[in-house]
Amino acid sequence: MAVNDRMFEPPAPDLARINARLAGLPPPLPEWILRAGQALATDNLQAAQTLLAHALSRAPGQPDVLRLYGLLLARIGNLPAAAANFEAALRAAPDDAMGYWQYAQVCEEAGDVAAAWRLRELAVQRLPDSPMALADMGEHLARHQHPDRALPLLERAVQLAPDYAPAQLKLGDALVSSGRPEEGAAAIRRALAAEPAFGAAWLSLADIKTVPITDDEADRMRALLRGRDIDEGERTAIEFALAKVCEDRGRYAEAFELLKDANTRRQREIGPWDAEQFRYRAQRAEEVFAAPHAAAEDPRLGEEVIFIVGMPRSGTTLVEQILAAHPQVQGAGELGELAQVLTEESSRLQRHYPDWVPGAGAGDWQRLGRRYLELTARFRNGQARFTDKMPNNWHALGAIRAMLPGARIVICRRDPVENCWSCFKQFFPRGWEFTCDLDQLALFWKTFDRAASWWASRDPGHIREQGYEALTENPEAQIRALLGFCGLPFDPACLAFHQARRNVHTLSAAQVRQPMRRHAGTAAAYGALLDPLRIALGIAPVNPHADRAVLT
Q1: Domain 1-124, CATH 1.10.1740.10 — does that match?
Q2: Residue 86 to residue 103: CA distance in whole angstroms
Q3: Top-level CATH class of 294-413+459-513?
């Protein structure tokens, strides 16, 4: 069972409902359904399709068959057909927490956060004692800046199913993101007590940073890795977690070997990165926005928005936490609404972004800007300004400037070797395949660097490049300049950003609860081991005779 698929295993109360349905079916239908679920959990889509085709021919209206077929269709990109199958499954079994959870996941991954929320809300209304429904809704609320509403749901979920490791993990993550790392670590450790090889829990525990992994826990991870009876996905996650522990303890050679192995396996799990498509999209965006193009009719549209973009692991969470400490700013976190607006327009025009940009007029950009503001209205909470901290929105800098000309954009930057190495050390979800390969990371960074420099030089009044090292070395001067760029008066609360009571749902959640410290990189400690990365970035190696071989 892969880390991200752990909730294919529902807790006992929800599993009982599924088992009751399956028990009423004639053989071999129950076996086909169970095997199809296992095939989907391990991304064996061909096996799942064969099993589900047989099941559909025998039981076309059976809700578990419809649900799994909907999941299969979503995996192969047929979202309308997937939605139709999920809807039919929930009509047939409105008490199926798994159906709501999987359907909501599909909606959210497609960018329709509002639909995902409606499904989660409906699931809890219909199934108020379902640990799965409660945990899913609680996680959604925590991720979207409502920890006060999330924690009671997650606490109720673990009361109903104390051995349900995913709920304990979600509770732990929510506590950490709410500024309660010790309590969060305790909940995550309860998840590990229930599921000792739960890779996602080991990752979360290692990522807290302010609560150290014990010697016994490090030994337990090593023992798990020596064994042969854990799932490959869990093995990958545990290697990432143990590498973090090794680095913290100065065991750099061990950390490096763990990360090489983990990233190689992760690359096999999630598939290749389409570097050519990435290059084409970046080049095409530069071409269409370099030519004369329209912008929204209202030059002040979007004045309330501060976009924070950059490479992953470049300091975007720190910058948002500083801004969110300001009394006039609501920190909204990582929002998917910009991508949703562009996807909606691409669907309407039947053309990929940015290919449709040359044909967009001022009225089109005005409409798209208003659509974004409509979708994000719920995040403002009455404050004059709000942040949208989605790092990958640097791909859409041109669209942001065209549809929201009044918005400010902060591009976060970090030393390229440190930034790429930090990415290589992290277990990222699907969609970040380039982070598994140092050459691909270098290509991604250089493309980002070109786009960031190009846009910042064109429009310094609306776009600021914020260096992570400069911010940590001279915080007051940098924070004053950052606030001035955003049109905000200086407020001392921004210097004490670590005391801000807000939810932070990223890898840096516990870290930004601490006072700012001068930047201390780790890449130098690895010495010549990282020379292939330096060479790929165009930086002089530590060892001038370094092998140019790609490290994965």
Answers
A1: no
A2: 6
A3: alpha beta
Residue 548: predicted pLDDT: 52
Higher pLDDT: 515 or 38? It is 38
Q: What residue spans define the domains of the chain?
A: 1-124, 294-413+459-513
Q: Which residues pair with 385 in a beta bridge?
A: 329
Rg over alpha carbons for the chain, rounded to the nearest Å, is 24
Task: Please tell me the distance from the alpha carbon of residue 25 to that of residue 330, in angstroms, as a whole number.
Answer: 52
Residue 234 CA to residue 2 CA, distance in Å, equals 6
**Amino acid in position 344:** E
Contact 138, 150 (CB under 8 A): yes
- Say what percent of the chain tops pLDDT 70: 93
How far apart CA 172 and CA 184 sit, in angstroms, is 4
Q: How far apart are CA 452 and CA 17, in angstroms?
A: 52
What are the φ and ψ backbone dihedral angles of 305, each rounded to 5 degrees? -105, 135
Mean pLDDT across the stretch 314-326? Answer: 95
In this predicted structure, which of 198-202, 236-240, 497-501 has the lowest mean pLDDT?
Answer: 497-501
Using an 8 Å Cβ cutoff, are 449 and 441 in contact? no
Residue 150 has pLDDT above 80, yes or no: yes
Q: What is the mean pLDDT of residues 37-61?
A: 94
Burial zone of 94 (CB within 10 Å; 0-12 exposed, 13-18 middle, 19+ buried):
middle
Distance from C-alpha of 244 to C-alpha of 167, rounded to nearest angstrom: 24
pTM of the model: 0.85
